[in-house]
Amino acid sequence: MKKILIGIYILVTLGIIFLLIQLNPKEKKDLVAIEAGEKLYMQMCSSCHGNSGLGEGAKQGTALNNQQFLSTVSNQDLIHYVKYGREGTIMPDYKFLSDEQLNQLVAFMRDWQTEKIHFDAPETISGDIDNGEKVYGLYCLSCHGVDGVGKKKMGTALSNPQYLKYTTDQQIWISTAYGRDKTRMSASLEGLEGVRQLSKDEITDVISFIRSFEKK
How far is CA 211 from the centre of its chain? Predict the structure, then answer.
């Protein structure tokens, strides 16, 4: 009986060792990608987005190390944002980076994510553009500017072609409704701890107005 138990113990131990050997290459690969991405980030991104990604850089870039933001964007979204930049803003494009470098940069940014937050948003965003313009003028214009051109150190350029191309209506709705912690963008949805207290329909109207910038 004792020999049987020892045999089982040895088999279990060998099985665990085998699994660890199989898992280690992936873990090492991810770690290597994150470390390479950190080097790229410090070289090209930290001056605007800050060493910690909180938007504390000298040029006041967007806060990337933000759980709300990271919960609503895919890795492909992040690649698009980096690769194509934002025309007409201080965010240049990085088309010269290889696919491997882009993936490394995204791996580093994704490593900031500590939780996956689920947000409710309408499946279809179709509101009253005219009312959206009125609500925008009351609550959004002071930071995001006339026609969504943005204001330095205040608000993102919402009418930027790259922003509108690579950001879905639902992503804009969520950012507007729930805001982003530790940034100037507080929640707007009624019932949350925000100043604006907008209804879901009013937020939908605002998003429809923002989306209309594409046609101008």
Answer: 19
